[in-house]
Amino acid sequence: MNEDLIYNAVGRLVPSEINGEPVVPFMGVGKYRPEGKKHASAIPTNADYPADGNKQVASLKEALIKAGLKDGMTISTHHHFRDGDLVANMVFDVVKELGVKDIRWYPSASFPCHAHLIPYLEDGTISHIEGSMNGPLGRFCSDGKMKKTAVLRSHGGRYQAVQDGEVKIDIAVIGAACADPFGNANGLNGPSSSGLLGFALADSQYANNVIVVTDNMVPFPCVPWQIQGNHVDYTVEVEKIGIPEKIVSGTTQITKSPDRLLIAEMTAKFCEATGIIHDGFSFQAGAGGTALSIGIYFGEIMRRKGIKARFARGGSNKYLVEMLEEGLVEYILDGQTFDLEGVRSMRDNPNHTWTSPFTSYNYHSKGNFAGLVDVVILGATEVDVNFNANVVTHSDGKLLHGLGGWQNCLFSKTVILPIPLFRDRIPVIVDEVTTLCGPGELIDVIVTERGIAINPLRKDLIEKAKDSGLPIRTIEEMKEEAERICGKPKKPVFTDKIIAAIKWVDGTVIDVVRQVDEKKTEN
Amino acid sequence: MTATAGNRGDSVRSDCFVQIAKTEHHATEIRLLSKVESLFGDSIRELCHEVLTHYNLRNVLVEIEDKGALPFVIAARLEAAIRRLTGTDESFLLPIETKNLHRTGRDRTRRTRLYLPGNNPKLMLNAGIYGSDGIILDLEDSVAPDKKAEARLLVRNALRAVDFGDAERMVRINQLPAGLEDLDAIVPEQVNLILIPKCESAQQIIQAEERIEKILGRENTDIYLMPIIESALGVVKAYEIASALPNVAALAIGLEDYTADLGAQRTAEGRESFYARSAVVNAARAAGIQPIDSVFSEIDDMEALRSNVLESKALGFAGMGCIHPRQVPVINEGFSPDEQEIEKAKRIVIAFKQAQEKGLGVVALGSKMIDAPVVKRAVHTIELAIQSGKLSTNWRENHE
Predict the structure, then answer these.
(1) What phi and psi, each to the nearest 5 degrees, are found at residue A11?
(2) C-alpha–C-alpha distance, residues B325 and A94, integer Å
(3) How far apart are CA B343 and CA B345, in angstroms?
(4) How many angstroms separate the CA atoms of A6 and B24, rounded?
(5) Is the previous residue joined to B291 through a cis bond, with omega within 30 degrees of 0?
(6) How crowded is residue B201: how many other Cβ atoms within 10 Å of its Cβ?
(7) How far apart are CA A318 and CA A292, in angstroms?
(8) What is the spatial distance between Cα A278 and Cα B285, in angstroms, rounded to a whole number?
(9) Contact present, A433 and A395 (Cβ < 8 Å)
């Protein structure tokens, strides 16, 4: 395996085969042309389903058995409950109990709560993960302990892989805050409210077997039906599917760090000075502390100028909801809801609408919303002097984050990465990123606390920012300053073993992560 | 025998904790636990060897818990532990950052000065980017008594290694006489200004200055002093202190200690300190130096800060202390001239230049004569306006 290595269009050495299946090396943005038909699951018939519409079974175990669980299958779960998810752990407790092996786990994202699954990765219950890996699972994978190669995809890439039949899901287990016995489900009502269920859409449409699990079973109909019962095979009621305080936790606090506030303020000033913020514009900012502050600065600018945004793409949270309710933003197109205010707003406000990776991100479709956004604010662990960026590994070569919707958002009209010049002693702007997740041609502006670098391809932005009084510098100057402060770091040494592949939005391989050679790195 | 220095714990960043022990029978060993091991592990060990060699130390076990500390921090922590272990007072100095050689003027603008706890390297690294006119590396109230010695070395190294940009590099030493020892460490390191806390007499200023000149081995021409008045007696002696020496550049007031000394409560209206603030302004202005106000401690309340600054400016103060970078822009703005003041200053400066060009001894604006101090204040207003970005440097070309 992996012997046949090819340099792809961004100069990364990648294999032509992963886990025994052929893959296409990245060919450049928009260069790969898919062929053939979309994947389809077997044609079902109503004759096989209860005439009264009651698909409820007694337990998750029974549902999995009825779905034909066996060795080597692919099981998907979703991260609507974030670090409060109990569903994936429950599923694999059953898989383990039944002695089934070699499962490919296909989550839309994983969280530290899934460290519970490490023993199952060790004993072969789970062969590998295709999805994000943070925290303990990232370390497990980084240490080369996973049986097969991990595959990381963006949210849009995950939909694309399912739609194109690149990943055939045998059993999708969809945790929902509210469901009826027929299988209609939503994330809006109940103790485990998560807002929406968009990440499970592809699974509901394409998986061979779909199980809906809820801790809030209501009589038919469960409305609105974000997941349609017509796609669902079995429904299960359990005591608890999520830990509410962990579903809406974490990154939704405005930063107090003076450096991050400064970066946020500079980002907003840049957007004002270059005319990106104009009446009827649109934006997307994530849930991190810096991104939240940028949203607040945007709000101040809009109020001062007496203008409003046509729409904002969420991750929604109370700050974005306040902007919607104040009339600064006309619509929220929400991909995931980060707090209860977001859930409330989505439930009550018709202008707060749920989206999915299909509507927002799927590259193998007839257009998506990401490209319609005027400015998107994203993060990165590293950016190099060619504006290529990394979000999955750190400079020490360890796999620590998933791709999320990051790659998909790069298609917005202006992509801004507000990042510190260095973290502790680690330069963030480097000669060459450790792992290339997004090509520099799609990344427009880097805002650090010590200056702003504009991609030379964006002559229009360079021209508009010229007299802004903002500290516009070249990316090389900023890289040199980072090294002057921190010292020039040594690079980790890698073995030949590929532990993870990074897919581009079209399913091609843009880079791989190799295992760090601990001995040679620390000599 | 074991000695330690530095900080440890989950929230510690950009710092390290060093423990050194003498071992009679073993060769020197360095145990490094660093979060940046793969990137900087070798260079940290190299630096550690260099320091040990400098002190001629053998047979020691050095344990370093590193949270991404920069070399100037690691060197300061190692030196502090070694000094404690061996009793040496020998220094280990890394090369000086050439940008840090800049000197400042006695009358430079001092609207904002950002306080940085002297034993916390994390806050020092980016201190120069927030636009404060000065930064204060504080060895006094923000440093615990048992950390004074190591903070002194950290501050000394920071003065040499950290690029604080255009900010004036200030150090607040401890109350005399303990502060004299601080002077030994920092005076040779290109400090621009020294804050002397809890001043109550001109004699204290002279005592500090004598120590400075002794350390320099020459007349002190470029290190300025800013005494801080923090007691009832200090307020009474304010003018004596302000005019003690020509290099006293500013006189500050510290209200926390002052109100405690009075036995009064600090209130939002500040009536209890009105007299002292005015007395300090008056004494400073009488001595021809800058009066500088106390800090405002509610860091989340920007509106209250704004009104505090306006009041401070109205009383005659030229600047304030900042305890959080977020306060800097608000205070800078508050002490900067407004549009009306700038317009007036422009007219005066232009009239003055025209009079000079025509060789006139007297300056007039319309039918009104303008005195020299008025011109001086106008020039200062223009400088402030340029510094705060309200006026371009070539404003005269655009004006004419």
Answers:
(1) 75, 20
(2) 53
(3) 5
(4) 57
(5) no
(6) 16
(7) 10
(8) 49
(9) no
Q: For residue A2, what pLDDT band results from cuts at 50, 70 and 90?
A: very low
How many inter-chain contacts (A to B, CB under 8 Å) are there?
Answer: 67
What's the pTM value of the predicted model, to 2 decimals? 0.92
Provide the token pair at A182.
């027929």
Specify the residue for token string 């990943």.
A167
Rounded to a whole number of angstroms, the distance from the CA of B343 to the nearest CA of chain A is 22
The DSSP letter of residue A274 is T
CA A331 to chain CA centroid, nearest Å: 22
Query: At A108, is the secondary structure helix, strand, or coil?
Result: coil
Which residues touch A154 (CB under 8 Å, ≥6 apart)? A361, A403, A404, A405, A406, A407, A408, A503, A505
B47 at A interface, C-beta within 8 A:
no
Query: What dihedral angle (degrees, nearest 10) is formed by the CA atoms of B260, B264, B270, B271?
Result: -140
B38 to A490: CB separation less than 8 angstroms, yes or no: yes
- Distance from the Cα of B17 to chain A's closest Cα (Å) equals 15
- Measured CA to CA, the distance from residue B234 to residue A405 in angstroms comes to 62
Q: ipTM of this predicted complex?
A: 0.88
Compute the residue count for chain A: 523
Contact A489 B37 (CB under 8 A): no
Sign of the CA dihedral B34, B35, B38, B44?
negative
Give the whole-angstrom CA distance, residue A183 versus residue A416.
41
Q: Bridge partners of B15?
A: none
Quick check: bond before A418 cis, omega within 30?
Answer: no
Q: Which residues of B touch A449 (CB under 8 A)?
A: 126, 129
Separation of alpha carbons A150 and A501, rounded Å? 6
Using CA coordinates, name the residue in chain B closest to A486: B70
Q: Is A341 helix (H, G, I), strand (E, B) or coil?
A: helix
* E strands, A381-475, in order: 382-384, 389-390, 414-418, 422-423, 426-427, 429-430, 445-448, 451-454, 472-473
Question: What is the side-by-side strand order in the sheet with A414-418?
Answer: A352-354, A329-334, A309-313, A281-285, A375-377, A414-418, A445-448, A451-454, A472-473
The predicted model gives A188-203 an average pLDDT of: 94
Q: Is the preceding omega at residue A315 within 30 degrees of 0, hence cis?
A: yes
| Cβ within 8 Å, pair B42-A523 | yes
**Chain B CA closest to residue A395:** B39
Domains parsed from chain B with CATH numbers: 2-86 (3.30.230), 101-335 (3.20.20.60), 339-399 (no CATH)
Could you say which DSSP state residue A336 is in?
A: -
Q: Which domains does chain A have, with CATH numbers?
A: 49-124+167-249 (3.40.1080.10), 258-478 (3.40.1080.10)
Dump pLDDT digits (tens) for B68-89: 999 999 999 999 999 999 999 9
- The Cα B268–Cα B274 span in angstroms is 12
Residue with tokens 């070395």: B153
Q: Do A489 and B36 touch (CB under 8 A)?
A: yes
DSSP-assigned letters across all residues of B123-158: HHHTGGGS--SEEEEE-STTS-GGGHHHHHHHHHHH
Q: How many Å apart are CA A363 and CA A376, to the nearest integer?
A: 17
What is d(CA B95, CA B98) in angstroms, rounded to the nearest whole number? 9
> Does B68 touch chain A if contact means CB atoms closer than 8 Å?
yes
Inform me whether the C-beta atom of residue B14 falls under 8 Å from chain A C-beta atoms: yes
Low-confidence winner among A4-8, B29-33, B232-236, B381-385 (lowest mean pLDDT): B381-385
What is the average pLDDT score of chain B?
Answer: 93
SS3 assignment, position A260: helix
Tell me the per-residue pLDDT of A52-111, one tens digit each, with 9 for 90 and over.
999 999 999 999 999 999 999 999 999 999 999 999 999 999 999 999 999 999 999 999
